[in-house]
Amino acid sequence: MRLVVKTIAAATCLAGAVPAVAGETASGSARITARVPEVCDLAAAPFTISESGQVSGRLFEFCNSNRGDQVLATHRPREVDERAFVNYAGRNTALSNNGLSTVAFRSGQRVETVDVVIDAREIAAPITVAFTMAAI
User: Fold this and answer.
1) Rounded to whole angstroms, how far apart are CA atoms 104 and 68?
2) How far apart are CA 60 and CA 126, in angstroms?
3) Model pLDDT for residues 45-68, shown as the tens digit of each residue
4) What is the Cα 128 distance to its own chain's centre?
5) Which pLDDT score is estimated for 27?
6) Largest Cα–Cα distance of the chain, in whole Å?
7) How far apart, in whole angstroms, are the C-alpha atoms of residue 129 and residue 74?
8) CA-to-CA dists, residue 3 to 8, 12, 13, 71, 122, angstroms
9) Is the pLDDT of residue 99 over 50?
10) What CA–CA distance (Å, rounded) separates 71 from 133?
11) How far is CA 96 from CA 60, 93, 102, 129, in A?
């Protein structure tokens, strides 16, 4: 008797499993969402030094933040009587005394190569400048 009940139950399940078929005029929709992490990055080509002592090169900027980003130059603290400048994409900025200088603000997403010139000819000791990009 149990075998008969199991056979009937299995047959009922199979009979109820009808594949879904859509007609030509059928419509539907689906909502797909994704979360993309914010990424801001800089990549540098080799920099060169001119006979006058200026250092120049190009940086590739990438930032997918809709809010924008800022580019920072980190360096050793500058002495009061030293002068050093960064020309970043046409904007000239004096390096600050504290070792952290904001050299650019950007709005919206960005993929671009920019020219950079570092003029640190009026310094008492060598200086290294590192650039970083951060979403705002």
Assistant:
1) 11
2) 25
3) 999 999 988 999 999 999 999 999
4) 23
5) 83
6) 103
7) 6
8) 9, 14, 15, 76, 97
9) yes
10) 4
11) 24, 9, 9, 12
